[in-house]
Amino acid sequence: MKKVLIIIGKILSFIGVTILGVLVALLLIINMFCNGSSVKAKDMFVTTILETGQVKFVVNLFLSKSEIKEIVARNSLKEMKTEVDTNLIQVADTSDREPIVIEEVNGGTFRGKMMIIADPSRVYVATTYPWTEYGEELGKIVEKNNAIGGVNGGLYVSTANKGGHPIGVVVSKGKIQQNNTGSYAGLYLIGLDNNNLLRIIDVTKKSKSAVEKLVQEEGIRDAVTFQDEYSDKNNHFVKLIINGEKRELNGLGSGANPRTVIGQRADGTILLLVTDGRGDGGHLGATASDLIKVMSDYGAVNAANLDGGSSTSMYYNHEYLKTSVTMYYANSSWKIPTAVVVGGEE
After folding, report:
1. Which stretches does DSSP call E strand in the chain?
2. Over pLDDT 70: what percentage of the chain?
3. Nearest Cα to 171, choosing from 195, 194, 148?
4. Long-range contacts of 100-107 (CB under 8 A, 24+ apart)
5. Is the pLDDT of residue 212 over 90?
6. Greater confidence, 314 or 252?
7. Which of 179, 232, 230, 187 is closest to 208 using CA atoms?
Protein backbone atom coordinates (compact mmCIF):
# COMPACT_ATOMS: atom_id res chain seq x y z
CA MET A 1 0.00 0.00 0.00
CA LYS A 2 2.86 2.35 0.91
CA LYS A 3 4.51 1.75 -2.48
CA VAL A 4 1.26 2.49 -4.26
CA LEU A 5 0.90 5.79 -2.40
CA ILE A 6 4.48 6.71 -3.27
CA ILE A 7 3.85 5.98 -6.95
CA ILE A 8 0.64 8.02 -6.92
CA GLY A 9 2.49 10.86 -5.21
CA LYS A 10 5.21 10.82 -7.87
CA ILE A 11 2.61 10.82 -10.64
CA LEU A 12 0.76 13.76 -9.11
CA SER A 13 4.04 15.57 -8.58
CA PHE A 14 4.98 15.02 -12.23
CA ILE A 15 1.59 16.27 -13.39
CA GLY A 16 1.87 19.34 -11.17
CA VAL A 17 5.37 20.19 -12.42
CA THR A 18 4.23 19.71 -16.03
CA ILE A 19 1.23 22.00 -15.60
CA LEU A 20 3.38 24.59 -13.89
CA GLY A 21 5.90 24.40 -16.73
CA VAL A 22 3.18 24.90 -19.31
CA LEU A 23 1.79 27.89 -17.42
CA VAL A 24 5.22 29.48 -17.10
CA ALA A 25 5.88 28.97 -20.81
CA LEU A 26 2.47 30.45 -21.64
CA LEU A 27 3.10 33.50 -19.47
CA LEU A 28 6.48 34.03 -21.11
CA ILE A 29 4.90 33.88 -24.56
CA ILE A 30 2.19 36.35 -23.57
CA ASN A 31 4.79 38.67 -22.09
CA MET A 32 6.77 38.46 -25.33
CA PHE A 33 3.73 39.63 -27.31
CA CYS A 34 2.83 42.37 -24.84
CA ASN A 35 6.32 43.74 -24.19
CA GLY A 36 8.34 42.60 -27.20
CA SER A 37 9.85 44.86 -29.82
CA SER A 38 7.15 44.25 -32.46
CA VAL A 39 4.42 46.87 -32.15
CA LYS A 40 2.30 45.13 -34.80
CA ALA A 41 2.46 41.80 -32.94
CA LYS A 42 1.51 43.52 -29.68
CA ASP A 43 -1.39 45.35 -31.30
CA MET A 44 -2.71 42.18 -32.95
CA PHE A 45 -2.43 40.18 -29.73
CA VAL A 46 -4.14 42.78 -27.51
CA THR A 47 -7.01 43.55 -29.90
CA THR A 48 -7.58 39.86 -30.51
CA ILE A 49 -7.72 39.02 -26.78
CA LEU A 50 -10.06 41.93 -26.06
CA GLU A 51 -12.59 40.41 -28.45
CA THR A 52 -12.78 37.19 -26.45
CA GLY A 53 -15.48 36.61 -23.88
CA GLN A 54 -13.56 34.92 -21.07
CA VAL A 55 -9.86 35.88 -21.13
CA LYS A 56 -9.89 39.67 -21.58
CA PHE A 57 -8.18 39.94 -18.18
CA VAL A 58 -4.96 38.46 -19.58
CA VAL A 59 -3.78 41.71 -21.18
CA ASN A 60 -4.31 43.55 -17.89
CA LEU A 61 -1.68 41.31 -16.30
CA PHE A 62 1.02 42.69 -18.57
CA LEU A 63 -0.13 46.14 -19.70
CA SER A 64 -1.51 49.20 -17.93
CA LYS A 65 -5.00 50.50 -18.68
CA SER A 66 -3.52 53.52 -20.44
CA GLU A 67 -1.39 51.29 -22.68
CA ILE A 68 -4.40 49.14 -23.56
CA LYS A 69 -6.48 52.20 -24.39
CA GLU A 70 -3.74 53.52 -26.67
CA ILE A 71 -3.55 50.22 -28.52
CA VAL A 72 -7.34 50.04 -28.93
CA ALA A 73 -7.49 53.66 -30.10
CA ARG A 74 -4.98 53.09 -32.89
CA ASN A 75 -6.49 49.78 -34.01
CA SER A 76 -10.22 50.24 -34.42
CA LEU A 77 -12.80 51.02 -37.07
CA LYS A 78 -13.60 54.66 -37.67
CA GLU A 79 -17.09 55.84 -36.79
CA MET A 80 -19.58 55.25 -39.59
CA LYS A 81 -22.78 57.27 -39.43
CA THR A 82 -24.05 56.30 -42.88
CA GLU A 83 -27.52 54.70 -42.72
CA VAL A 84 -28.82 51.94 -44.99
CA ASP A 85 -30.50 53.31 -48.13
CA THR A 86 -33.18 50.71 -48.87
CA ASN A 87 -33.64 52.09 -52.40
CA LEU A 88 -30.32 50.56 -53.40
CA ILE A 89 -31.66 47.02 -52.96
CA GLN A 90 -34.16 45.66 -55.50
CA VAL A 91 -35.13 42.08 -54.72
CA ALA A 92 -35.02 40.21 -58.01
CA ASP A 93 -36.81 37.11 -59.26
CA THR A 94 -34.91 34.03 -58.09
CA SER A 95 -36.47 31.35 -60.31
CA ASP A 96 -33.42 31.14 -62.56
CA ARG A 97 -30.83 30.95 -59.77
CA GLU A 98 -29.53 28.28 -57.42
CA PRO A 99 -31.54 28.63 -54.17
CA ILE A 100 -28.51 28.08 -51.92
CA VAL A 101 -24.83 27.90 -52.75
CA ILE A 102 -22.02 27.10 -50.30
CA GLU A 103 -18.51 28.30 -51.18
CA GLU A 104 -15.09 28.07 -49.57
CA VAL A 105 -13.58 31.41 -48.53
CA ASN A 106 -9.87 31.55 -47.76
CA GLY A 107 -7.58 34.28 -46.46
CA GLY A 108 -4.03 34.55 -45.20
CA THR A 109 -4.98 33.85 -41.56
CA PHE A 110 -8.39 32.18 -41.85
CA ARG A 111 -10.59 29.69 -43.69
CA GLY A 112 -14.34 30.10 -43.97
CA LYS A 113 -17.65 29.23 -45.58
CA MET A 114 -20.01 31.52 -47.45
CA MET A 115 -23.70 30.59 -47.66
CA ILE A 116 -25.38 32.41 -50.55
CA ILE A 117 -29.20 32.52 -50.35
CA ALA A 118 -30.94 33.80 -53.47
CA ASP A 119 -34.33 34.44 -51.84
CA PRO A 120 -34.06 36.73 -48.79
CA SER A 121 -37.61 35.92 -47.70
CA ARG A 122 -36.33 32.50 -46.59
CA VAL A 123 -33.97 34.05 -44.03
CA TYR A 124 -35.28 34.70 -40.52
CA VAL A 125 -34.37 34.59 -36.84
CA ALA A 126 -35.11 31.37 -34.97
CA THR A 127 -34.87 31.32 -31.18
CA THR A 128 -35.22 29.24 -28.03
CA TYR A 129 -37.95 31.58 -26.69
CA PRO A 130 -39.36 31.52 -24.04
CA TRP A 131 -35.91 31.98 -22.53
CA THR A 132 -34.62 29.49 -19.99
CA GLU A 133 -31.26 29.09 -18.28
CA TYR A 134 -29.83 27.14 -21.22
CA GLY A 135 -29.87 27.80 -24.93
CA GLU A 136 -29.42 25.14 -27.61
CA GLU A 137 -26.79 24.13 -30.15
CA LEU A 138 -27.21 25.70 -33.59
CA GLY A 139 -27.98 22.35 -35.21
CA LYS A 140 -30.87 21.70 -32.84
CA ILE A 141 -32.35 25.15 -33.46
CA VAL A 142 -32.16 24.63 -37.23
CA GLU A 143 -33.69 21.15 -37.09
CA LYS A 144 -36.48 22.13 -34.69
CA ASN A 145 -37.52 24.87 -37.10
CA ASN A 146 -37.43 22.55 -40.13
CA ALA A 147 -34.90 24.92 -41.65
CA ILE A 148 -32.22 23.93 -44.16
CA GLY A 149 -29.35 25.78 -42.51
CA GLY A 150 -28.18 28.75 -40.52
CA VAL A 151 -25.53 30.52 -38.45
CA ASN A 152 -25.33 31.77 -34.88
CA GLY A 153 -27.14 35.04 -34.17
CA GLY A 154 -26.80 37.99 -31.84
CA LEU A 155 -25.24 39.02 -28.56
CA TYR A 156 -26.10 36.87 -25.53
CA VAL A 157 -25.01 36.00 -22.00
CA SER A 158 -22.36 33.34 -22.61
CA THR A 159 -21.24 32.72 -19.01
CA ALA A 160 -20.50 29.03 -18.39
CA ASN A 161 -21.83 28.32 -21.90
CA LYS A 162 -25.41 28.32 -20.67
CA GLY A 163 -26.47 30.62 -23.48
CA GLY A 164 -30.09 30.95 -22.47
CA HIS A 165 -30.52 34.71 -22.50
CA PRO A 166 -30.01 37.11 -25.42
CA ILE A 167 -28.87 40.69 -24.90
CA GLY A 168 -30.62 43.69 -26.42
CA VAL A 169 -33.48 43.17 -28.86
CA VAL A 170 -34.76 40.03 -30.58
CA VAL A 171 -37.49 40.01 -33.21
CA SER A 172 -38.68 36.72 -34.70
CA LYS A 173 -41.32 36.54 -37.44
CA GLY A 174 -42.63 40.00 -36.52
CA LYS A 175 -42.85 39.35 -32.78
CA ILE A 176 -40.61 41.14 -30.28
CA GLN A 177 -39.27 38.42 -27.96
CA GLN A 178 -36.62 40.49 -26.18
CA ASN A 179 -36.61 44.26 -25.64
CA ASN A 180 -33.99 45.53 -23.22
CA THR A 181 -31.20 47.72 -24.58
CA GLY A 182 -30.14 48.59 -21.01
CA SER A 183 -26.93 50.55 -20.71
CA TYR A 184 -25.09 48.73 -23.50
CA ALA A 185 -23.04 51.09 -25.67
CA GLY A 186 -23.17 50.88 -29.45
CA LEU A 187 -26.05 48.42 -29.69
CA TYR A 188 -27.28 47.79 -33.26
CA LEU A 189 -30.37 46.03 -34.52
CA ILE A 190 -29.39 43.72 -37.41
CA GLY A 191 -32.05 41.94 -39.43
CA LEU A 192 -34.61 41.97 -42.21
CA ASP A 193 -37.75 44.01 -42.73
CA ASN A 194 -41.05 43.06 -44.34
CA ASN A 195 -39.60 43.92 -47.76
CA ASN A 196 -36.79 41.42 -47.14
CA LEU A 197 -34.18 44.16 -46.93
CA LEU A 198 -31.22 43.95 -44.55
CA ARG A 199 -31.41 46.68 -41.91
CA ILE A 200 -28.66 47.85 -39.55
CA ILE A 201 -30.08 50.35 -37.04
CA ASP A 202 -28.60 51.96 -33.92
CA VAL A 203 -30.83 51.20 -30.91
CA THR A 204 -28.38 52.26 -28.18
CA LYS A 205 -30.23 53.03 -24.94
CA LYS A 206 -33.60 53.25 -26.69
CA SER A 207 -36.56 52.75 -24.39
CA LYS A 208 -38.84 49.76 -24.81
CA SER A 209 -41.56 51.95 -26.30
CA ALA A 210 -39.06 53.52 -28.72
CA VAL A 211 -37.92 50.08 -29.87
CA GLU A 212 -41.53 48.94 -30.32
CA LYS A 213 -42.24 52.03 -32.41
CA LEU A 214 -39.14 51.48 -34.53
CA VAL A 215 -39.97 47.82 -35.18
CA GLN A 216 -43.52 48.74 -36.19
CA GLU A 217 -42.71 51.77 -38.34
CA GLU A 218 -39.72 50.17 -40.09
CA GLY A 219 -41.53 46.86 -40.52
CA ILE A 220 -38.78 44.81 -38.88
CA ARG A 221 -39.76 41.14 -39.13
CA ASP A 222 -36.61 39.40 -37.86
CA ALA A 223 -33.59 40.82 -36.03
CA VAL A 224 -30.95 40.39 -33.34
CA THR A 225 -28.50 42.86 -31.82
CA PHE A 226 -24.73 43.13 -31.67
CA GLN A 227 -22.41 45.72 -30.20
CA ASP A 228 -20.12 48.36 -31.68
CA GLU A 229 -17.82 49.52 -28.88
CA TYR A 230 -14.12 50.18 -28.46
CA SER A 231 -12.73 50.32 -24.95
CA ASP A 232 -10.34 48.48 -22.67
CA LYS A 233 -13.27 46.18 -21.84
CA ASN A 234 -14.74 45.48 -25.28
CA ASN A 235 -13.54 45.53 -28.85
CA HIS A 236 -16.61 44.81 -30.95
CA PHE A 237 -17.80 46.20 -34.26
CA VAL A 238 -20.96 46.00 -36.40
CA LYS A 239 -21.03 48.02 -39.62
CA LEU A 240 -18.69 46.77 -42.35
CA ILE A 241 -20.21 48.04 -45.60
CA ILE A 242 -23.14 50.44 -45.92
CA ASN A 243 -24.58 51.43 -49.32
CA GLY A 244 -21.47 50.04 -50.95
CA GLU A 245 -19.21 52.24 -48.80
CA LYS A 246 -16.48 50.36 -46.95
CA ARG A 247 -15.89 51.34 -43.36
CA GLU A 248 -12.54 53.03 -42.79
CA LEU A 249 -9.97 51.59 -40.41
CA ASN A 250 -7.50 52.84 -37.84
CA GLY A 251 -4.37 50.69 -37.94
CA LEU A 252 -5.26 47.00 -37.96
CA GLY A 253 -8.95 47.80 -37.50
CA SER A 254 -9.46 44.86 -35.17
CA GLY A 255 -7.88 41.69 -33.88
CA ALA A 256 -8.15 38.33 -35.65
CA ASN A 257 -10.88 35.95 -34.51
CA PRO A 258 -13.59 33.56 -35.71
CA ARG A 259 -16.36 35.67 -37.28
CA THR A 260 -20.00 35.53 -38.34
CA VAL A 261 -21.23 38.10 -40.87
CA ILE A 262 -24.48 38.84 -42.71
CA GLY A 263 -24.68 40.85 -45.93
CA GLN A 264 -26.98 41.60 -48.86
CA ARG A 265 -26.38 42.15 -52.56
CA ALA A 266 -28.18 44.68 -54.73
CA ASP A 267 -30.52 41.94 -56.03
CA GLY A 268 -31.55 40.95 -52.51
CA THR A 269 -29.31 37.89 -52.20
CA ILE A 270 -28.30 37.22 -48.58
CA LEU A 271 -24.70 36.36 -47.74
CA LEU A 272 -23.85 34.48 -44.54
CA LEU A 273 -20.13 34.17 -43.81
CA VAL A 274 -18.32 32.27 -41.04
CA THR A 275 -14.56 32.01 -40.50
CA ASP A 276 -12.31 30.01 -38.21
CA GLY A 277 -9.55 31.24 -35.90
CA ARG A 278 -8.01 30.95 -32.39
CA GLY A 279 -5.79 28.12 -33.55
CA ASP A 280 -8.56 26.13 -35.26
CA GLY A 281 -6.98 24.56 -38.33
CA GLY A 282 -3.80 26.43 -37.44
CA HIS A 283 -5.44 29.76 -38.23
CA LEU A 284 -5.43 32.99 -36.25
CA GLY A 285 -8.76 34.29 -37.57
CA ALA A 286 -10.22 37.10 -39.67
CA THR A 287 -9.84 40.84 -39.04
CA ALA A 288 -12.34 43.56 -39.82
CA SER A 289 -10.29 44.34 -42.92
CA ASP A 290 -10.59 40.70 -44.05
CA LEU A 291 -14.36 40.73 -43.59
CA ILE A 292 -14.80 43.97 -45.52
CA LYS A 293 -12.75 42.62 -48.42
CA VAL A 294 -14.57 39.28 -48.57
CA MET A 295 -18.05 40.82 -48.37
CA SER A 296 -17.12 43.46 -50.95
CA ASP A 297 -15.70 40.79 -53.29
CA TYR A 298 -19.02 38.94 -53.00
CA GLY A 299 -20.95 42.05 -53.98
CA ALA A 300 -22.43 43.07 -50.63
CA VAL A 301 -24.07 46.50 -50.68
CA ASN A 302 -24.62 46.24 -46.92
CA ALA A 303 -22.87 44.00 -44.42
CA ALA A 304 -22.71 43.69 -40.64
CA ASN A 305 -20.74 41.67 -38.11
CA LEU A 306 -22.76 39.35 -35.85
CA ASP A 307 -21.61 37.63 -32.66
CA GLY A 308 -18.42 35.68 -33.33
CA GLY A 309 -15.57 34.03 -31.47
CA SER A 310 -16.40 30.69 -29.88
CA SER A 311 -20.05 31.19 -30.88
CA THR A 312 -19.30 31.22 -34.61
CA SER A 313 -20.86 28.20 -36.34
CA MET A 314 -22.67 27.20 -39.53
CA TYR A 315 -25.08 24.30 -40.04
CA TYR A 316 -26.45 23.14 -43.39
CA ASN A 317 -28.32 20.11 -44.69
CA HIS A 318 -28.14 18.21 -41.38
CA GLU A 319 -24.44 18.74 -40.70
CA TYR A 320 -22.03 21.34 -39.33
CA LEU A 321 -19.95 23.13 -41.93
CA LYS A 322 -18.32 25.16 -39.17
CA THR A 323 -18.24 24.05 -35.54
CA SER A 324 -17.15 26.00 -32.48
CA VAL A 325 -13.41 26.55 -32.08
CA THR A 326 -13.76 25.58 -28.40
CA MET A 327 -12.30 22.10 -27.89
CA TYR A 328 -15.26 20.84 -25.83
CA TYR A 329 -17.71 21.76 -28.60
CA ALA A 330 -15.53 20.91 -31.58
CA ASN A 331 -18.28 18.70 -33.05
CA SER A 332 -21.15 21.14 -32.62
CA SER A 333 -21.63 24.69 -31.36
CA TRP A 334 -21.98 26.60 -28.13
CA LYS A 335 -25.46 26.81 -26.65
CA ILE A 336 -27.11 29.93 -28.06
CA PRO A 337 -30.55 31.59 -27.78
CA THR A 338 -30.80 32.98 -31.34
CA ALA A 339 -29.80 31.94 -34.85
CA VAL A 340 -30.15 33.35 -38.36
CA VAL A 341 -31.65 30.47 -40.30
CA VAL A 342 -32.77 29.64 -43.84
CA GLY A 343 -36.24 28.13 -44.10
CA GLY A 344 -36.86 25.04 -46.19
CA GLU A 345 -38.62 25.38 -49.52
CA GLU A 346 -42.41 25.45 -49.41
Report:
1. 100-106, 111-117, 123-127, 147-152, 168-172, 175-180, 187-193, 198-202, 220-227, 229-230, 235-236, 239-242, 245-246, 259-265, 270-275, 300-305, 314-316, 319-322, 338-343
2. 86
3. 194
4. 100/148, 100/149, 100/316, 100/342, 102/316, 102/321, 105/273, 105/275, 105/294, 107/275, 107/286, 107/290, 107/294
5. yes
6. 314
7. 179
